[in-house]
Each structure stands twice: as structure tokens, then as C-alpha cells.
Amino acid sequence: MGKINLKGFTLIELLVIISIIGFLTVAALFSFNIVRMHSRDAIRVGNVATLNRALAMYMNDQGSYPIASGECLKAASGSGKDLLDSDVIVDVPLDPLWPTTVPTSVNEDGYAEGAASNFCYYYMGTNKNYYISYYLESNSKSGSAGIHVTAPAGAQN
Predict the structure, then answer these.
(1) In the prediction, which pLDDT does 115 show?
(2) I need a surface site. Which of 24, 44, 132, 142 has the fewest CB within 10 A?
């Protein structure tokens, strides 16, 4: 009898290789989603800083802030349009995921609180003060996950 020449992989070897590839794929996707959340949060913090500078220039030029009882900032109407029309900003930045979603809970001062999550850049302004509420998805270098509020004096929380 001659020698049997077995070429190829056994079923066990194939299952081990497939499970390793599957594990590596899941780990890569998980890491990629975390990186995406952190990058969106960095964009949010940068956008709010841009809005703060635009509002400071608006106050300098107009003598007051745009008045709003609470709105998602957008270019087409409201305070966002006021900023565009006064040439203190080139374009009104929008939240990368939730450009028009209003916070579910707003306090008497006009900024988002507590149960609110996943919302636009929410603006409330009077002649001499304003609040911009925004939501961060994750704990990162940009800040802790949750609601953040900024005003002329700086961050509120």
C-alpha cells in the first residue's frame, strides 16, 4: 500500500481560523465606533467654540445677543440666520448626528438638563446673555459624556 497524501485543512482548523477572523473583525469594529464617537465629540466642541466667538463678535457689533426663547441653531432661520446676516460667521455649524433634534428637557433658564440626550446645538438668548447646550456621546479628551452648556462667561457644567 502506498502513502496517503492528505492536503488541505481539517474542519477543526478551518473553524478555529474562522473564529479568530470573526473575533478580530468584531474588535476592530468596536474600536472604530469608539474612534468615530470621539471624533464627533471633538467636532461638537470645536463647533461650539466657533459659535461662542461668533456670538462675541455679534455682541460687539450689535450691542446685544440674538434673542431666542430656545431653538436649534440653523442657517435658514432664527439666531443662526441673524449670525449669518451680520457676517460674524460663514456658516452655522450643525451637530454631526442630530442637527434638528430638540432636547427633551429644558430648565427655566433655557438650557438642556437631566433626561435630555442626543440633541442639536440648542440656543437660548437674551440681550445680555445666552446659553448653548450640546451633547457629547462619550468620555474623551473633548469632555465627559452628557450635557454641556456654554455661556459668555464660559462653560456652565
Answers:
(1) 85
(2) 24
> Considering the domain boundaries, does residue 2 fall inside one?
no
d(CA 43, CA 48): 9
Q: What is the pLDDT of residues 113-130, one digit of tens each?
A: 988 889 999 999 999 999
Q: Residue 39: which domain range?
A: 11-155
| Per-residue burial over 53-80, b = 16 or more CB atoms within 10 Å of its CB, e = otherwise | ebbeebbeeeeebbebebbbbbeeebbb
For residues 95 and 9, give the distance between their C-alpha atoms in angstroms, rounded to a whole number: 51
- Is the residue at 48 inside a domain? yes
How many structural domains is the chain composed of? 1
In-domain check, residue 113:
yes
CA distance 111 to 136: 15
pTM value surpassing 0.85: no
